[in-house]
Amino acid sequence: MRVFEKNSNIFNLLSEAVSEGILVVNSERFIVATNARTDQMFGYGKGDLKGNPLHVLIPEGNRKSHEKHVVDFYAKGDKRRMAQGRNLFGIKRNGDRFPVEIGLNPFSLYGETYVMALIIDVTNIKEKERQINELNEGLEKKIKVRTVELRDTVAMLKKEIKLRTAAEAKIKNALQKERDLNELKTQFLSLVSHEFKTPLSGILTSATLVGKYKDSDQQDKRDKHLKTIIGEVRHLNGILTDFLSIERLEKGKEVYKFTDFSLSKVINEVIYNANMLLKSGQHINYPQNVDGISIRQDQKIVTLVLTNLLSNAVKYSPEDTTIDLRVVLGEDKIVFHVADEGIGIPEKDQKHIFERYFRAENTLLNQGTGIGLNIIKGHLENLDGSIRFKSRENSGSTFTVELPVENITEH
Ligand code: ADP
């Protein structure tokens, strides 16, 4: 202790110059020197701490661990900071606790071992730390709340987007339908202008001529023109029926009626009508195996399909050719083949042949609407049937139709 008194001037000079508290203890852990900052920090008068045991500055709860710490420290004898990883406290003369950070430096002087402690009062730093922690916690809480709010908003927006997309799709759909309808109307009008023109002028001519044959012996001439008129009106009627058929198919309004009917009766009727259209030297081969057979299907559709295929075969074949109608009866299906030796379908047009209004390049000079095949394909699909064809330009086409039949009987 005297060492420090002896050298107190030097000690004072050095220790008062630093801002940390300085405290020197001897090996018995008695305080042998302090600087003014230490005295003031712990609430003692100048020099009052000298001679006191170190533990007067340590809170009671910490004394035991502190003792152990100091013993360890003397044993190791190296410099270190005491507060690392722990919260250290000092105790003031009035009993108040305050947080400190302490660095320990052992040294020897005149054969004695001392430890110099550098003490910093970290009350302010701790307070700042606490405030920062509090702020951080507040911030974290706010972020959490915000995240939840954002999540809700995103979910709401997603829902809104979904609703809007659905509404948009609906509007687009409606618009597309409107466009399709308009297109259909436009096509119908242009078709009507083209397709109706020739028959109507034929009707007009025939009607005018009929009026001119007034004599009673001119009945055969009148009949000829009346036949033309009837044929043309039938033709126009057929086009209009096709259009109505498209509309019904499109709207899913078509109702099918299944009945048991005689196959040969239908085929006779269809061929009879087709025969009226034949060009000179054309001939339709009647199928061999249909007599006495009745099937259960929609008779109107079977008639429509065969009528269409036969009239196409006649229309798109030249004079002096044969058209073959063959029927193959399966267990639960019926297959029709309509083969002609006509102009055929150009390869590049074949993939479009069932599209509505499509007409192959080589048939543009013939009358036609491009509706028939589209309609019968629609009906056949509705009835779980199918239609396909094989064709070569300038050598002929074969259309094949398959239809399921519930009941095939012989009578
Ligand atoms: P349309 O005969 O009134 O034009 P379809 O729908 O019946 O309408 O036929 C569509 C197109 O398919 C025809 O325009 C024609 O180009 C082609 N086609 C159909 N059947 C035949 C056939 N037997 N031979 C050659 N081409 C055909």
**Count of helical segments?**
10
Bound small-molecule species? adenosine-5'-diphosphate
- First and last CA, distance: 140 Å
Structural class computed from helices and strand pairing? alpha+beta
Helix content: 40-55%
Mean pLDDT: 88
Order of helices and strands: HHEEHHEEEEHHEHEEHEEHHEEE
Low-confidence stretches: none
Multimerization status: single chain
**What is the β-strand count?**
14
Q: Give the biggest beta sheet.
A: 6 strands, antiparallel
Task: Label the overall shape.
Answer: rod-shaped
How much of the sequence is in beta strands? Answer: 15-25%
Whole-angstrom Rg: 56 Å
Q: What brief labels describe this structure?
A:
alpha+beta, 6-stranded antiparallel beta sheet, 5-stranded mixed beta sheet, 14 strands, rod-shaped
Would you mind describing this structure in some detail?
This protein has 411 residues and is of the alpha+beta class. The chain is 50% helix and 21% strand. The protein has helices spanning 2-6, 8-15, 36-42, 60-76, 123-212, 219-250, 263-275, 299-315, 347-350, 372-382; strands at 21-26, 31-34, 80-81, 88-91, 97-109, 112-121, 259-262, 283-285, 293-297, 322-329, 333-339, 386-392, 396-404, 408-410. The strands form 3 sheets. Strands 1, 2, 3, 4, 5 and 6 form a 6-stranded antiparallel beta sheet that branches. A 5-stranded mixed beta sheet has the order 8-10-11-13-12, covered by helices on one side. A hairpin with a 2-residue loop joins strand 5 and strand 6 (112-121). It is rod-shaped and about 165 Å long. The model has no long low-confidence stretch (mean pLDDT 88). The structure holds adenosine-5'-diphosphate. Adenosine-5'-diphosphate is lined by residues 308, 312-313, 316, 340, 342-345, 353, 359-360, 363, 368-374, 397.
